[in-house]
Amino acid sequence: MREEDSNWFAKWEEELPSPEELIPLSQSLITPDLAIAFDLHRDNSNSGQPLPQTTPPQPNSSTEFAGDSTGDEPARTLKRPRLVWTPQLHKRFVDAVAHLGIKNAVPKTIMQLMSVDGLTRENVASHLQKYRLYLKRMQSGGGGGGGGDSDHLFASSPVPPHFLHQTSRQSSDLFIPSLVPISTQQQHIAAPPSQFLHRQMSAVNFTSPTKATDQAMFLARQQSQLQQPVFRPSSLHLHSQVANYTQDLDSGAKTVLTLFPTRDD
DNA sequence: ACGCGAATAT
DNA sequence: CATATTCGCG
Protein backbone atom coordinates (compact mmCIF):
# COMPACT_ATOMS: atom_id res chain seq x y z
CA MET A 1 0.00 0.00 0.00
CA ARG A 2 1.39 3.29 -0.99
CA GLU A 3 0.70 6.74 0.12
CA GLU A 4 -1.42 7.38 -2.88
CA ASP A 5 -4.00 5.23 -1.33
CA SER A 6 -5.10 7.98 0.89
CA ASN A 7 -5.75 10.50 -1.72
CA TRP A 8 -6.54 8.65 -4.81
CA PHE A 9 -10.07 9.62 -4.46
CA ALA A 10 -9.11 13.20 -4.16
CA LYS A 11 -7.24 12.93 -7.33
CA TRP A 12 -10.22 11.51 -8.96
CA GLU A 13 -12.32 14.28 -7.78
CA GLU A 14 -9.93 16.67 -9.32
CA GLU A 15 -10.25 14.93 -12.55
CA LEU A 16 -13.92 15.32 -12.59
CA PRO A 17 -14.76 17.17 -15.69
CA SER A 18 -16.46 20.40 -15.24
CA PRO A 19 -20.08 20.61 -16.23
CA GLU A 20 -19.03 22.28 -19.36
CA GLU A 21 -17.09 19.31 -20.39
CA LEU A 22 -19.60 16.68 -19.91
CA ILE A 23 -22.30 16.49 -22.37
CA PRO A 24 -21.98 14.35 -25.35
CA LEU A 25 -22.89 10.92 -24.33
CA SER A 26 -21.47 8.01 -26.07
CA GLN A 27 -18.44 8.52 -28.03
CA SER A 28 -18.25 7.08 -31.37
CA LEU A 29 -15.52 5.31 -33.14
CA ILE A 30 -17.46 4.90 -36.24
CA THR A 31 -17.15 7.40 -38.88
CA PRO A 32 -20.44 9.05 -39.63
CA ASP A 33 -20.31 8.04 -43.18
CA LEU A 34 -20.15 4.47 -42.22
CA ALA A 35 -22.86 4.67 -39.68
CA ILE A 36 -25.10 6.08 -42.27
CA ALA A 37 -23.97 3.89 -45.05
CA PHE A 38 -24.62 0.91 -42.91
CA ASP A 39 -27.80 2.30 -41.71
CA LEU A 40 -26.96 1.18 -38.29
CA HIS A 41 -28.19 3.46 -35.70
CA ARG A 42 -26.49 2.51 -32.61
CA ASP A 43 -28.41 3.48 -29.60
CA ASN A 44 -26.48 2.91 -26.50
CA SER A 45 -29.30 3.46 -24.16
CA ASN A 46 -28.26 0.53 -22.19
CA SER A 47 -29.05 0.66 -18.57
CA GLY A 48 -26.33 -1.53 -17.38
CA GLN A 49 -28.21 -4.61 -18.23
CA PRO A 50 -27.39 -7.24 -20.70
CA LEU A 51 -28.01 -5.05 -23.57
CA PRO A 52 -29.33 -7.07 -26.43
CA GLN A 53 -27.33 -5.43 -29.04
CA THR A 54 -29.81 -4.08 -31.41
CA THR A 55 -27.06 -3.95 -33.86
CA PRO A 56 -27.13 -6.46 -36.59
CA PRO A 57 -25.90 -9.95 -35.87
CA GLN A 58 -22.79 -9.25 -37.76
CA PRO A 59 -19.78 -10.75 -36.05
CA ASN A 60 -18.24 -7.41 -36.04
CA SER A 61 -19.09 -4.28 -37.77
CA SER A 62 -16.19 -4.05 -40.02
CA THR A 63 -15.33 -0.86 -41.54
CA GLU A 64 -13.97 0.51 -44.67
CA PHE A 65 -12.62 3.85 -45.43
CA ALA A 66 -9.93 3.66 -47.94
CA GLY A 67 -9.72 6.27 -50.54
CA ASP A 68 -12.10 4.19 -52.46
CA SER A 69 -15.20 6.18 -52.73
CA THR A 70 -16.95 4.31 -55.40
CA GLY A 71 -17.25 0.72 -54.42
CA ASP A 72 -17.47 0.94 -50.72
CA GLU A 73 -20.56 -0.78 -49.73
CA PRO A 74 -20.62 -3.68 -47.48
CA ALA A 75 -17.32 -3.27 -45.97
CA ARG A 76 -18.88 -5.75 -43.73
CA THR A 77 -16.44 -8.51 -44.18
CA LEU A 78 -13.43 -6.36 -44.18
CA LYS A 79 -11.10 -5.76 -41.39
CA ARG A 80 -11.22 -2.99 -39.01
CA PRO A 81 -8.15 -0.85 -38.76
CA ARG A 82 -6.00 -0.94 -35.74
CA LEU A 83 -7.57 0.87 -32.94
CA VAL A 84 -5.38 3.48 -31.44
CA TRP A 85 -5.74 3.52 -27.73
CA THR A 86 -5.26 7.08 -26.87
CA PRO A 87 -4.64 8.00 -23.27
CA GLN A 88 -8.11 9.36 -23.11
CA LEU A 89 -9.69 6.29 -24.46
CA HIS A 90 -7.62 4.27 -22.09
CA LYS A 91 -8.71 6.39 -19.22
CA ARG A 92 -12.23 5.75 -20.13
CA PHE A 93 -11.40 2.13 -20.09
CA VAL A 94 -9.75 2.33 -16.73
CA ASP A 95 -12.58 4.25 -15.25
CA ALA A 96 -15.01 1.75 -16.54
CA VAL A 97 -13.08 -1.07 -15.02
CA ALA A 98 -12.68 0.76 -11.78
CA HIS A 99 -16.30 1.50 -11.68
CA LEU A 100 -17.33 -2.00 -12.37
CA GLY A 101 -14.88 -3.58 -10.04
CA ILE A 102 -12.51 -6.34 -10.84
CA LYS A 103 -15.35 -8.69 -10.46
CA ASN A 104 -17.50 -7.47 -13.24
CA ALA A 105 -14.79 -6.06 -15.32
CA VAL A 106 -14.92 -8.37 -18.23
CA PRO A 107 -14.56 -7.32 -21.80
CA LYS A 108 -18.20 -7.33 -22.59
CA THR A 109 -19.36 -5.28 -19.69
CA ILE A 110 -16.47 -2.94 -19.94
CA MET A 111 -17.20 -2.39 -23.54
CA GLN A 112 -20.79 -1.65 -22.76
CA LEU A 113 -19.99 0.74 -20.05
CA MET A 114 -17.58 2.60 -22.16
CA SER A 115 -20.22 3.17 -24.73
CA VAL A 116 -17.87 3.85 -27.48
CA ASP A 117 -19.28 3.10 -30.78
CA GLY A 118 -17.19 0.95 -32.94
CA LEU A 119 -15.37 -0.47 -30.04
CA THR A 120 -15.50 -4.19 -30.16
CA ARG A 121 -15.33 -6.72 -27.45
CA GLU A 122 -12.12 -7.94 -28.94
CA ASN A 123 -10.63 -4.52 -28.69
CA VAL A 124 -11.42 -4.38 -25.06
CA ALA A 125 -10.43 -7.93 -24.35
CA SER A 126 -7.11 -7.42 -25.94
CA HIS A 127 -6.52 -4.20 -24.17
CA LEU A 128 -7.66 -5.59 -20.88
CA GLN A 129 -5.20 -8.37 -21.19
CA LYS A 130 -2.40 -6.02 -21.82
CA TYR A 131 -3.51 -3.85 -19.02
CA ARG A 132 -3.48 -6.71 -16.61
CA LEU A 133 -0.01 -7.56 -17.61
CA TYR A 134 0.93 -4.01 -16.99
CA LEU A 135 -0.56 -4.08 -13.54
CA LYS A 136 1.25 -7.22 -12.76
CA ARG A 137 4.47 -5.87 -13.94
CA MET A 138 3.81 -2.75 -12.00
CA GLN A 139 3.48 -4.47 -8.69
CA SER A 140 6.73 -6.20 -9.14
CA GLY A 141 8.96 -3.23 -9.37
CA GLY A 142 7.19 -0.17 -10.46
CA GLY A 143 7.65 2.19 -7.57
CA GLY A 144 10.63 4.35 -7.96
CA GLY A 145 13.37 2.30 -9.45
CA GLY A 146 11.35 1.07 -12.33
CA GLY A 147 12.79 2.96 -15.18
CA GLY A 148 11.19 0.87 -17.81
CA ASP A 149 8.57 3.20 -19.05
CA SER A 150 7.75 1.39 -22.16
CA ASP A 151 4.08 1.49 -21.47
CA HIS A 152 3.28 5.08 -21.98
CA LEU A 153 -0.31 4.40 -22.43
CA PHE A 154 -0.94 2.65 -19.18
CA ALA A 155 1.22 5.00 -17.29
CA SER A 156 -0.92 7.84 -18.44
CA SER A 157 -3.78 6.86 -16.27
CA PRO A 158 -3.72 6.46 -12.53
CA VAL A 159 -4.29 2.96 -11.42
CA PRO A 160 -7.04 2.67 -8.91
CA PRO A 161 -5.90 0.80 -5.83
CA HIS A 162 -8.57 -1.79 -6.23
CA PHE A 163 -6.86 -3.14 -9.24
CA LEU A 164 -3.86 -4.14 -7.32
CA HIS A 165 -5.53 -5.72 -4.39
CA GLN A 166 -8.16 -8.28 -4.52
CA THR A 167 -11.14 -6.57 -3.09
CA SER A 168 -13.94 -7.50 -5.31
CA ARG A 169 -16.11 -4.70 -4.20
CA GLN A 170 -16.51 -1.49 -5.94
CA SER A 171 -18.84 0.91 -7.52
CA SER A 172 -20.58 1.43 -4.26
CA ASP A 173 -18.23 3.93 -2.81
CA LEU A 174 -18.25 6.24 -5.68
CA PHE A 175 -20.88 8.68 -4.91
CA ILE A 176 -20.98 11.36 -7.39
CA PRO A 177 -22.51 14.73 -6.87
CA SER A 178 -25.35 15.56 -9.04
CA LEU A 179 -23.61 15.42 -12.23
CA VAL A 180 -25.89 14.20 -14.77
CA PRO A 181 -25.95 14.64 -18.35
CA ILE A 182 -26.18 18.02 -19.44
CA SER A 183 -27.40 19.54 -22.40
CA THR A 184 -26.66 20.87 -25.56
CA GLN A 185 -23.21 21.82 -25.73
CA GLN A 186 -21.85 21.61 -29.15
CA GLN A 187 -18.56 20.37 -30.07
CA HIS A 188 -15.80 22.76 -30.60
CA ILE A 189 -14.92 21.07 -33.71
CA ALA A 190 -16.37 22.51 -36.69
CA ALA A 191 -19.40 22.13 -38.55
CA PRO A 192 -19.31 19.25 -40.85
CA PRO A 193 -20.37 19.55 -44.41
CA SER A 194 -23.94 19.36 -43.45
CA GLN A 195 -25.06 15.94 -44.26
CA PHE A 196 -23.43 14.70 -41.17
CA LEU A 197 -25.38 16.71 -38.78
CA HIS A 198 -26.84 13.77 -37.17
CA ARG A 199 -27.71 12.86 -33.73
CA GLN A 200 -25.57 12.50 -30.83
CA MET A 201 -26.86 9.45 -29.23
CA SER A 202 -27.96 9.66 -25.75
CA ALA A 203 -26.62 6.96 -23.63
CA VAL A 204 -28.76 7.67 -20.71
CA ASN A 205 -32.30 7.13 -19.88
CA PHE A 206 -33.74 9.08 -17.07
CA THR A 207 -36.65 6.83 -16.96
CA SER A 208 -34.87 4.20 -15.05
CA PRO A 209 -33.99 4.71 -11.46
CA THR A 210 -31.21 3.17 -9.50
CA LYS A 211 -28.96 1.32 -11.77
CA ALA A 212 -29.52 3.50 -14.71
CA THR A 213 -28.82 6.51 -12.64
CA ASP A 214 -25.61 5.06 -11.51
CA GLN A 215 -24.45 4.50 -14.96
CA ALA A 216 -25.78 7.81 -15.97
CA MET A 217 -23.59 9.51 -13.50
CA PHE A 218 -20.72 7.44 -14.55
CA LEU A 219 -21.18 8.30 -18.12
CA ALA A 220 -21.80 11.86 -17.31
CA ARG A 221 -18.42 12.33 -15.95
CA GLN A 222 -16.83 10.39 -18.68
CA GLN A 223 -17.69 12.51 -21.57
CA SER A 224 -14.58 14.45 -21.91
CA GLN A 225 -12.21 11.98 -23.11
CA LEU A 226 -10.83 11.95 -26.49
CA GLN A 227 -7.73 13.28 -27.85
CA GLN A 228 -5.83 13.96 -30.87
CA PRO A 229 -3.49 11.20 -31.65
CA VAL A 230 -0.94 10.84 -34.25
CA PHE A 231 -2.59 11.57 -37.45
CA ARG A 232 -1.03 13.68 -40.06
CA PRO A 233 -2.39 16.93 -41.24
CA SER A 234 -2.59 15.48 -44.64
CA SER A 235 -5.57 13.39 -43.89
CA LEU A 236 -9.06 14.42 -43.51
CA HIS A 237 -10.07 17.03 -41.12
CA LEU A 238 -12.90 17.57 -38.86
CA HIS A 239 -16.02 15.78 -39.42
CA SER A 240 -17.77 15.83 -36.19
CA GLN A 241 -16.99 14.94 -32.69
CA VAL A 242 -16.88 11.33 -33.43
CA ALA A 243 -13.96 9.27 -34.13
CA ASN A 244 -12.54 9.00 -37.44
CA TYR A 245 -10.43 6.93 -39.57
CA THR A 246 -7.41 8.67 -40.71
CA GLN A 247 -5.38 7.39 -43.46
CA ASP A 248 -1.85 8.13 -44.07
CA LEU A 249 -1.49 8.85 -47.65
CA ASP A 250 2.22 8.80 -47.47
CA SER A 251 2.39 5.17 -46.72
CA GLY A 252 -0.26 4.09 -49.03
CA ALA A 253 -3.31 2.65 -47.45
CA LYS A 254 -2.33 2.81 -43.88
CA THR A 255 -5.41 3.47 -41.95
CA VAL A 256 -5.81 4.01 -38.35
CA LEU A 257 -8.83 4.24 -36.25
CA THR A 258 -8.60 7.08 -33.94
CA LEU A 259 -10.59 9.43 -31.90
CA PHE A 260 -11.03 13.05 -32.15
CA PRO A 261 -10.25 15.41 -29.41
CA THR A 262 -12.86 16.86 -27.28
CA ARG A 263 -10.69 18.51 -24.84
CA ASP A 264 -7.62 17.88 -22.96
CA ASP A 265 -7.72 16.06 -19.78
C1' DA B 1 -17.66 -15.65 -23.10
C1' DC B 2 -13.03 -15.24 -20.53
C1' DG B 3 -8.19 -15.37 -20.02
C1' DC B 4 -3.54 -16.42 -21.65
C1' DG B 5 0.50 -16.92 -24.21
C1' DA B 6 2.49 -16.64 -28.57
C1' DA B 7 2.41 -15.55 -33.24
C1' DT B 8 1.35 -12.18 -36.49
C1' DA B 9 0.34 -7.77 -38.45
C1' DT B 10 0.72 -2.56 -38.78
C1' DC C 1 10.41 -1.03 -32.44
C1' DA C 2 5.88 -0.53 -30.10
C1' DT C 3 1.58 -2.10 -29.77
C1' DA C 4 -2.81 -3.91 -31.40
C1' DT C 5 -4.96 -8.10 -33.22
C1' DT C 6 -5.51 -12.94 -34.20
C1' DC C 7 -5.27 -17.69 -32.83
C1' DG C 8 -5.22 -21.92 -30.23
C1' DC C 9 -6.29 -23.92 -25.98
C1' DG C 10 -8.24 -24.77 -21.37
Automatic annotation (TrEMBL):
Lineage top rank: taxon: Eukaryota
Protein's cellular compartments: Nucleus
Pfam families to which the protein is assigned, alphabetical: Myb_DNA-binding (PF00249)
Protein name: Myb family transcription factor
InterPro entries hit by this protein: Homeodomain-like_sf (IPR009057), LUX/BOA-like (IPR044841), Myb_dom (IPR017930), Myb_dom_plants (IPR006447), SANT/Myb (IPR001005)
GO cellular component entries: nucleus
Gene Ontology MF annotations: DNA binding; DNA-binding transcription factor activity
Domain HTH myb-type: start-end pairs: 85-136
PROSITE patterns, sorted: HTH_MYB
Primary location group: nucleus
SUPFAM superfamilies: Homeodomain-like
Keywords, ordered alphabetically: Nucleus, Transcription, Transcription regulation
Region of interest (Disordered), residue spans: 41-79, 140-162
